[in-house]
Queue: 2 jobs
Job 1
Amino acid sequence: MKTKMMTTAQRTTADDVVTPAHTGTTHPSTVTNVIALGQQLAEAFGAARALIDRTPTDLEVMVANLRRWYYAHDPAERDRLLWRRFEEARQTHTRLEQAIHVAREALDVERAALGQAHEERDTLATRPLPATIEEEASGIRADAARRYQSVGIECQQRAAAVAELERLLPAPEQALGPLTEAVTRVLEAVGTIDREAFVRRVLESGELEQLRSRFERLRTMANTHAAAIDEWSRRVGRPVRVPRVRFPWPPPAVWDAFLNAPTEAPKLIWDDDPNGSSS
């Protein structure tokens, strides 16, 4: 599974977690360092499990908790810190996804290399041992015998690496689905608080006369994170429940009359509200 938005420090390849073994063969000359790879996988899996466990399944509970957290922070920092909550959750997902990808790549390499090593060992096994002192002195068959022993050790190492990778992968792979759901719930809660705060700022601004010039900018702000919402709707396989912002004001042609007339405040509209609408 490929992921986007990875930094160089976050990228890990099978070449980063291998140690030297045997050379002079047509198959890969290294055996996966499963200890290092397993540690990376375990760390990513542990962070994923922690996020899953601390993310409420009830969106209302999560929004209430996040709302208290949001208003406890400095107003100048609230929005940045709020969206950092989602970014950190997304990074946890990316980290696990990448660790699984690297482990899967290493497993594919080891399976292929193990098959090639078995073939080489079987070929070497057909060569008889030296029968005379002259043959022994020539070193040709002795080299083949040493190579046979070396390839036998390589087969054992690769078989052990394959078995360990197969043991390590199932739990993280099973956690990827619940983790995706948890990250999506974080996005839903963060988006809800962000838009609630936007509506509150409009209500408390007392600057209705200036709202006409700010209308397009505010609408853009309300939809700034539409791409993230669309992406995680696709990942989780369902629409993300983030309320839209409703602007019940009339079109620009009647703004002059509108400024002197009573009007409604912006409202949060949920997509699952049968009477809801947006503009």
Job 2
Amino acid sequence: MSHRPSSIPSTSSSTTILQTRINQKRTELENLQALRALSAQLATQMSTLEQKLATLRDGTEAVAEVLQNWNGVLGVLGMVGRTLPGGGEGVQAEGQVRDGEGEGSLPPTLVRVPVQQRGQEKRVEGRGEGG
């Protein structure tokens, strides 16, 4: 009989240990599920970030190409300014004219748009249609 009473406490202590172990595993499961949800959210955010970075990279490449072309454009403008008559000898920084020289000393414009000619052509066309 002395044997039985000693087995009862060991059964209840093993049940308590098992219950504690089950509770720990439940807590661990809840933490793992929360971790899974946060990981899915992080993966979604990283995917969005990847798309935004790809867009930014494409835009940056386009800007780099434009800026790279400006060196060529400015080089051509410099060569044209040197080869044209009156290549800017009377011009200082920011288009300021040296003392004693008028606007005639400014370098010629590179592109000329015949605005007056177009206006005259429109007037002639308007008279021909109206009369």
